[in-house]
Amino acid sequence: MNTYGSPDPKQRQTDAMAAKRAMLEKFRSASADPKLAERLAERAAINQAREARQAEREAAERALEAERAAQAAREAELRAQAEAEAAAEAARKQEEEFRAHEELLAEQKAARDARYAARKSAAKKKRKRGL
To answer: What is the pTM of this model?
Structure first.
């Protein structure tokens, strides 16, 4: 059933082969193009530059992380030193309060002993007088 204007199968096959040949020739001419080598070299240079920038960023990030770790270590050391100083100050203050309490107790005992001695002395005088 051939209709007017439709190619026969043989004609379609030769047209398809011609199209394939044309595509193959286009590919071959594009691969032999001297500008292709330039574009590939340019792409390679761009990729190398991109990788170099990425490596620089990663190195800067590692350096920043190291600096942050060092800063954190310094802060931890300062915190530990401050805590140790606070503990020493608390111990000194507690010792001072203990001494003050001991002095107060000694003063109270001395006052109590003085009152006791005064009472004994008054009782002794009373007995001496015979009253």
So the answer is: 0.45
